[in-house]
Amino acid sequence: MLEYSYWIAILPALALPINLGRKWKEPLPALIGLLLIGIAWAWSVAIFATTLHAAPYSASAVWAPAAIPLKIGFQIDHLTTLMLLVVTTVSLLVQLYSIGYMHGDPEFNRFYAFLGLFTAAMLGLVISDNWMLLMIAWELVGVSSYLLIGFWYRKPSAMRAAKKAFVVTRLADLGMLVGVLILWNTFHTLNFAEVRAQLDPANAAMIAACGAAAIGLFIGAAGKSAQFPLHVWLPDAMEGPTPVSALIHAATMVAAGVYLVGRSFFLFEYGSLHTFHVLGIGITALGLVRFLGVITLFMAATIAMAQNDIKKVLAYSTVSQLGYMMMGIGVGAWVAGLFHLMTHACFKALLFLGSGSVIHGTGTQDMREMGGLRKTMPKTWITYVIGYLALAGFPLFAGFWSKDAILDGAHVIGKFGPAWYLWVGVGSAFLTAFYMTRQMVMVFGGPKDGARNPSLHVHESPWTMWLPLAALAVPSLLIGFVGMPSHNLFRDYLSEPAAQVRAGSEPAALPAYLSEEALQQPGVDPAVKAIHAEEAEAGTLLPGGLNPTVTTSATAAGLLGLLLGWFYFEAARKRSAVMAKDTAQRLGLAHAAHAGAHGHGDAPAVDGAGFWNEPLPGLISRPVFRFLEDKWYIDEFYMATLVKGTFIVSAICAWFDRNVIDRIVNGVGGLGLVLAQVGRGLDRYVVDGIVNGLGAVADRSGRWLRQLQTGRVQNYAVVLYLGALLLVMAGLYKIPHH
Amino acid sequence: MSGHLAPYLIISAGLFSLGLFGALTRRNAVAVLMGIELMLNAANLNLIAFNRFLGPGGASTVNGMPVDGSFTPLLAGHAFAVVVITIAAAEAAVGLAIILTIYKNARTINVDEINWMRW
């Protein structure tokens, strides 16, 4: 079974030709997609069951035969199996959900075709056993993301968002390409295991090359996983259909970067033995990962506080959570990063699908127009609450365990290097709880008729939509327990084939690519030391093996965020409701309903909703709020520098092209014309002249000579006679005289 | 019979010239043939005369051998002359046959008018 498991990555792609082949009637494309992904899902589960205690399986074939053959192949190890499960599960649920969400869309079949393509590419990405195939799948993922963001291509904003996503991630992929090329140049193979086997802790040049390669790979990962400063595409990608946001831009594709770094973690760890000095700043591969991760984490969390679009809040929340994962990997807790990837995939897909249900039920994305949906959409509400608590890190929910594991890693690195990662992480946990509470209050809070835009006709979504919500709510609630520090099944599962993780109780032996001497060298990243440090705090742990410092502070921050947010925004909601009622009474309800305007950035439909435009009086001043609402002006910064700079450069290039290159080309062309004219003259007057001249000579002499043939025999006889006479005379002349 | 070669050659040359003149100037094709016969016979006279004076036992030989030491069989000139006469007879027959045919086709034997073998 394992040797055919690459079919998992091919099967879903069959939906592309089948669904694009004809404009099938509505439920059929979904059934095709569901059938294919269902097979892939069942297969993944079977693989999980059979390889639970098995050694990794891998198979490869020569793709490009050469002196150094280029091989591609696939592998089934525990990390791959985990990713297969996450991707196929979320994809299956999203495809089921989309039956309801995309109902009535004229291009229903195209949607399922692209979903199939995406799923196949993502599965190919995780099943690959080398960076080569991974990169190919990586780009395919990017293409299908582009196609799906721009699914409603008639909408200019969707088109722009698709282009932006593609260009930004493609730009980042350049870094990945450089990294892969460095690896190829160094090891002459791109297979994970083969590269790993070649790593030598005593080879300084190899360490530096791997550090550079790891940084290159991370640039690619930062693009896909929306890390600062390449995160700008992800919030815009919310222009795509909401199931796409859930599948691609929350659960799977954006996690691909985290997966890549996790999969290549041995390379990052090994490369972090070397510190690069750029402009006096020391940079290591893991240092860059955690630094950009923590910036992303904090920045996105603050921006999420000031968004009014339900999906934008979740988008920035996703960016922020990806920052958590990257920071987790960067501090050395790569298992924690992948653990958070898994839990986040569950609860963020749940939240996105829930928001899609809300959008489907209300017809708007602007949270200022919503309210009171708790009563009108109860199933959505209950599942959303579970996702919300999981994301906010409420104790015992999925996000609590994974976030705690990451913060624990940040705590450990504090003993060897900077300690502030933990506190930024804890602060961001507070912000996460705070902005999610704001969203909950805005969307679901208030009485039944509390929708601030009375023109909305709210209804609960069909079963195809709430069933996936329910299915995702279960793992969002429970899956965290597999990563409980005292009985960490998740870590054991990932590390069983090869002990390569920071052990909880007993110190792990150093992997072959590290040595005690190498760890003692200057310039070794603190994360590498932290990974292999012995656990010192045993005995003082909380129940479940939780670290008291980390867990207490993080839980306190999360609960504080929940409570503060609840009191603050519930009060705000009541005030705004009062204001809305006052306004409605003053102006007449008809007027308020009449003014109902949809969409982000418009004047709020109802007067009282205007309150939400500055929802944090007393906490955050108006300029700061504007700063957050406008996303730290990063887009504007790119617009003013990169985009404008590109335009200026291209204008210069266009001028150069028109005035220099074109002139050279035209000059060369003109020269050719002149030469051709000369050649034409030569041909006409010299070559043709000779040929025609010879012909003319033959012609003229023939005309002249033929006159000799008179037809009179006696003329000939005269000539004959004279000729004979001449010969005789010549003969006489030649006879020597005696 | 004169004891010198020259008078034979002179007569032969005259005969040849008469024949040539006739062959080149006569309009009548039969007369042209007659001219040719004259030239052939001038050649015959030459052959016989050369054999008589320069051949084996000839008047101008030394010890019966030609002065240049070449060997000429006995009666070689006569043999040539006989061959020429034979050829001349055949030639006359063919020539007259051609003339007859031309006459049948063109109703003339005036060689000036028989000029259609031209460009």
Mean pLDDT reading of chain B: 84
Q: What is the strand arrangement across the widest sheet of chain A?
A: 1-2
Which value, in Å, is the CA radius of gyration of chain A?
37 Å
Strand percent estimate of chain B? under 5%
**Rounded radius of gyration of chain B (Å):** 19 Å
Describe the protein:
The complex is a heterodimer of chains A (738) and B (119). Helices cover 68% and strands 3% of the residues of chain A. Chain A is mostly helical and 738 residues long. In chain A, the strands form 2 sheets. Chain A has a two-stranded antiparallel ribbon. Chain A has a two-stranded antiparallel ribbon with strand order 3-4. In chain A, strand 3 (276-278) and strand 4 form a beta hairpin. Chain A is elongated, with a radius of gyration of 37 Å. Mean pLDDT of chain A is 82; it is low at 497-507 and 589-610. Chain B has 119 residues and is an all-alpha fold. Chain B is 65% helix and 0% strand. Chain B has 3 helices and no strands. In chain B, helix 1 packs antiparallel against helix 2 and helix 2 (29-54) runs antiparallel to helix 3 (76-106). Chain B is elongated. The interface between A and B is medium-sized, with 11 and 13 residues.
